[in-house]
Write a structure and sequence with these properties.
Blueprint (H helix, E strand, L loop, with lengths): L4 H21 L8 H26 L1 H31 L4 H32 L3 H18 L4 E2 L5 H9 L12 E4 L2 E4 L1 H25 L5 H13 L1 H8 L9 H18 L9 H22 L23 E2 L2
Antiparallel strand pairs: 1-4, 2-3
Helix pairs in contact: 1-8, 2-3, 2-8, 2-9, 3-7, 3-8, 3-9, 3-10, 3-11, 4-7, 4-8, 5-10, 6-7, 7-10, 10-11
Length: 328
């Protein structure tokens, strides 16, 4: 399906408007509570589902089904994003009131990264048939790592980009309200909040490669891939505050995500064989069943476990829990 330039322009304006609304409503750096997070998560999810209905009426059921398959797999992978973001915030002891600002700019960065990868990846798949095998093998390997090497850990301050930033840019070890840069003894320096932002952005860059490759296994339509990514990511900030306190119960979710990544890899490889592309109803069914089973399995295994909300995140000035980031 091809979309004319004016449809792209309207979509970009709509997404920019949603981001502006989100920023305006949370400009006071208040701690986002569970109820508020659930409400906004519901709004963003409803917007994503409604867009599928619009596609159904405009382009038909096949296109809408493709969009929903992409949206669901991106939404599922975004839960893993939330888990890693929670670990970063815990490691750097980010005050709860400042977390949403980092997540806001993180969402913008995620949209930019994915936009680049979408056009590059789609062009490669359309031009060189063998890239389907490369992307497919990459997704299968990523699924294997997520399933069997999920507990490998890398401290966020060992992130190569974070270490480079600290070497190149003078950095203060404290938070200065919600500022990314400030002046200390007359010298302009980056704050610890900026270091956290860099950690989030570079981590999301890795997530972007995985998620874009996964959805390109479903379709190479840049319009579908971009919209599915955009609507899945727009609710990422609210999803974080909604799920941060429950993440410790999703102990088996990574197995489900691993299955989805491996399935996407196999699907992409099969698309260049006599088998061809798998039907969208089959793809949707695999995605829904896999997510449902992994979440139900997790909740059953952790029944009776107490959870905590985002308010338990350590405050600035207190020693950070030496939590580490799960390597992907």
């Amino acid at each position: 399906m091809s979309a004319s330039w004016w449809i792209w322009a309207l979509l970009m304006l709509a997404i920019a408007g949603m981001l502006a609304i989100d920023l305006f409503l949370h400009r006071d750096n208040h701690v986002i509570g569970f109820r508020e997070a659930v409400a906004w998560s519901g709004i963003w999810i409803a917007a994503g589902l409604l867009f599928g209905v619009v596609l159904w009426a405009w382009q038909g059921g096949d296109v809408a089904g493709t969009y929903y398959a992409g949206y669901l797999i991106e939404k599922a992978l975004s839960i893993d994003n939330v888990f890693v973001f929670a670990l970063i915030f815990s490691y750097f002891a980010v005050p709860a009131a400042l977390q949403h600002k980092v997540l806001f700019w993180g969402v913008i960065g995620a949209l930019v990264f994915r936009l680049v990868f979408i056009f590059v990846g789609a062009e490669l798949l359309e031009t060189f048939f063998w890239t389907a095998y490369v992307f497919g093998a990459f997704l299968i390997y990523t699924g294997y790592r997520m399933a069997f090497r999920h507990d490998e850990q890398t401290p966020p301050d060992r992130n190569p980009v974070v270490r480079l930033v600290r070497k190149v840019i003078p950095t203060d070890a404290d938070y200065h309200r919600d500022r990314f840069f400030t002046r200390v003894d007359g010298r302009r320096v980056a704050t610890l909040l900026f270091v956290v932002l860099i950690a989030v952005e570079t981590t999301d860059l890795i997530f972007a490669i995985d998620s874009v490759a996964a959805i390109l296994a479903i379709t190479t339509s840049t319009f579908i891939v971009w919209t599915a990514n955009a609507f899945a990511i727009l609710g990422l900030r609210s999803l974080y505050f909604c799920l941060a306190g429950l993440l410790r119960r999703f102990v088996h979710l990574h197995y489900g995500l691993a299955v989805l990544l491996a399935f996407a890899g196999v699907k992409l490889i099969l698309s260049e064989t006599p088998v061809g592309k798998l039907p969208i109803p089959v793809t949707l069914g695999v995605i829904v069943v896999t997510i449902a089973v992994s979440i139900a399995w997790s909740l059953r295994s952790t029944r009776g476990t107490t959870t905590t909300g985002t308010g338990d995140t350590p405050e600035a000035g207190k020693p950070a829990d030496p939590t580490t980031i799960t390597a992907r």
